[in-house]
Amino acid sequence: MSNLSIILKKEFIQISRDPAILRLIFLMPIIQLLILPFAADYEIKNINIAIVDQDHSDYSRELIGKFQHSNYFRLTGYETSYKNALKLIEADKADIIVEIPNNFEKTLVREDEATISLVANAVNGTKGNLGAFYAQRIVQEFNSKIRSEWIQFPRVNPIPLINVEYINRYNKRSDYQTFMVPGILAVLITMIGSFLTALNIVKEKEIGTIEQLNVSPIKKWEFILGKLIPFWVLGMIILTIGLVISYIVHGITPGSNLWILYVFTAFYLLAILGIGLLISNFSQTQQQAMMVSFFFTLIFILMSGLYTPVESMPFWAQKVAWMNPVTYLVDVMRMVLLKGAQFADVLGHLKIITLAGVALNVLAIWSYSKRN
Amino acid sequence: MKPSEQSIVTKNLTKKYGTFTAVDAISFDVRKGEIFGFLGANGAGKTTAMRMLTGLSKPSSGEATVAGFDVYRDAENIKKHIGYMSQKFSLYQDLKVKENIAFYGGIYGLRREALQAASDQLIHRLGLQGEVKTMVKDLPLGWKQKLAFSISIIHQPSIVFLDEPTGGVDPVTRRQFWNMIYEAADRGITIFVTTHYMDEAEYCNRVAIMVDGKIEALGQPSELKVRFETDTMDDVFYQLARKAKRGD
Description:
The complex is a heterodimer of chains A (372) and B (248). Chain A is built from 14 helices and 4 strands. Chain A has helices at residues 3-16, 19-39, 58-69, 82-90, 104-111, 125-150, 176-207, 209-214, 220-250, 258-281, 286-302, 315-321, 325-339, 343-367; strands at 47-53, 73-79, 96-100, 117-120. Chain A has a 4-stranded mixed beta sheet with strand order 2-1-3-4, sandwiched between helices. The termini of chain B are far apart. The A-B interface holds A 1, 3, 6-7, 9-10, 13-14, 17-18, 207-209, 211-218, 370-372 and B 54-58, 75-76, 79-80, 82, 84, 86-95, 99, 102-104, 106-109, 111.
């Protein structure tokens, strides 16, 4: 047995006896992949709408009915004045006010034109914007409907008839879960890889065993490989557990391109473990290592394109995003799991991540010193 | 004295941290098979000196050889020939007694039969036959310390460094611990031990007393007591240590 295999044996025994690590690697993927994709939904539903109807006509009632029957809106107020409706917004009970003015029907019939006002609470920008957008669509549909009623037999249809047909490719039902699951899996692998490696090494510093190893003939590379390999294996196990859950629960399958994911993750984990190793070199306590890992992971996740597309970030942020390893894994996961990408498609990413892995580990080995 | 009879030789060995001189030009020799005590108050520089000799810390200046190897050039070779037991308890609490022995024996190059023989001998000597499958965290402190010492010499090093090995241990166990040190010395292992228990100083062949980073006295306990006109090491130490300017 070489020194390395002696160290590995010890690490695997310790990991198998650590209930916290076992819980983390089995429960975290299950919980995150079961709960997050259902809860963290981009689609805006249940927009609370308050209606101020000062007209009380057939048309105003018809319009209100359209809002009520839409899946997006929930009528939470039916007020007589704009002032009262605004109070609902202030109390956070309404997101949108639709005000139908007095003589709405009369003006519409007589002057062929009428105005209604739409006020959106933009504190939550996405909800406000999308809500206003949905409301406009409803008003437009209503508009088209009454116009076509008025013009019974037109020679040519005065309403522009450009029907846009959507086809969602790769994620046919434009399903939010399908989009999120690969990303969440990427984050899981990242978190386990960086946190556990850093904590494990710093723990040896805290209890003092690292000093005992430093006075022993163990070589630097033996120690570092002895620490990296177990967590590399754990990362691959997480990937496997995650893929099984994705298939069973969300029906996502990489098909014949499974091996591309494994090859890419194998190299990706090298980079992430390198980060964990670097953090441990500069931390004296587990709390410190935890805080630093947390800081980086949070930035990595928010800037990875998991929640917001990288393309819509400002220029400088895009630069940062493409220096972030997580961006690459999220991208590759989606490419392979959703689009069925081929190896050639991910080769560019693979090269960059391998380069980053080599650089990070060289830096980590260089900064780990057996003497101070 | 022939150089081959010396285990440790230092000359003006110094360690500075910025403007602070932790160890100030210490020079001493330790003979093979000797029990050499390193005494001093907290902060006197004992641990720093020991860390330089074990290759954990690079000296700022001066010379030192340990087991015939230079501390600057040959630190990795020193590591193969020494044992070390640190102030902090250094066995893995979540490994069984046998697993700790196999791990530390293994990284010092003991393989299969040699490891098995050394392991059996160690367990037998400590009377731990019934505890080989016990987790180290479940052993009483005294046993843990004795086990840590035995493991630190499992590879038959030529020198073993013990950094306050009996801290927090009851007097009976302390006595047993010193018996183990004598046995190891009888087998030809040089013992370099730091302590601040003065009764333990009496057990050493020679002691060096450090004050503020310097060695203020060096010799056999009996010699030192004559030189300082007293009959206890406690008093020798007190006379020297009260001159100290730093402490904790």
